[in-house]
Amino acid sequence: MLQRKSLAQEVADLIKQDIQVGVYSVNEKLPSEPELMKKFGVGRSSVREAVKYLEQSGYVNVVQGVGTHVISTTGHQSLVSTLQQADLTELLEVRQFLETKIVEKAALNRNEDQLERMHVVLQKRNQFAKESRPEETVKADVEFHTILAESCGNRLLYELYKVVSVHLAQFFTERYLETETFIRSQKLHEDLFVQIKAQNPVKALKIIKQIIGTV
Questions:
Q1: CA 101, CA 12: separation in Å to the nearest integer?
Q2: pLDDT digits (tens, 9 = 90+) for 132-184
Q3: 55 to each of 76, 97, 200, how far by Cα in Å?
Q4: How far apart are the first and last CA of the chain?
Q5: What is the 3-state secondary structure (H, E, C) of 22-41?
Q6: Per-residue CA distances from 170 to 3, 53, 153, 176 (Å)
Q7: Domain HTH gntR-type spans what residues (predicted)?
Q8: Residue 47: in which H helix or E strand, if any?
């Protein structure tokens, strides 16, 4: 069954086309959010999601307070294409390989800002799950794991995970039409956060394996 593209995805595709044909060159700054909203006739949330997708796909780099700059005219095309063609087993295996190493390193390298953001997004995950809002719950769940990847201290692992996370989010959104699974795994995620904060990679590794096993 074909999935209709979201508004954000359509905007991302249009900006990507502009980048590929040279409307925006490498190192050039993209228009501001209000300008993009006006250009495409969409709301702020759609623009932000579109830019996030482009960042995860390797086309732009977003720096808070500075803006969004084009960094590539091709992005992670070969990797993205391969992921799009991968089956579920392959995707989950890649997730397992990445997350087990990420969690071990995050427990040793995380900083206070990252811990705070993890804590906030975990609260959102729990709230959305209890309110039976599956799409928002998935976004919060993926955001938590993406912050973990950022916290690991290995930029390449982080960039790889950002690309994979796009496809994980799509899979979760299509698979989980309710939030019971996320409610059941909330305690595991909170326990994982505790061990990351305590800088205990051994216990954190055990917990992430349990989390992956619940999918």
A1: 31
A2: 999 999 999 999 999 999 999 998 899 889 888 887 888 888 889 999 999 99
A3: 10, 22, 31
A4: 22
A5: CCCCCCCECCCHHHHHHHHC
A6: 10, 12, 26, 10
A7: 5-73
A8: helix 44-56
Instruction: Measure the CA–CA gap between 136 and 122, rounded to whole angstroms.
Output: 12
The token pair at 187 is 């305690």
Number of other CB atoms surrounding residue 147 within 10 Å = 23
Please report the pLDDT score of residue 81 as a whole number. Answer: 63
> Nearest 5°: phi and psi at 86?
-70, 150
- Is 61 within 8 Å of 68 (Cβ atoms)? yes
Query: What does DSSP assign to residue 76?
Result: T
Q: Which residue has the tokens 């609260």?
A: 123
What are the tokens at 66?
């500075």
Q: What is the pTM of this model?
A: 0.66
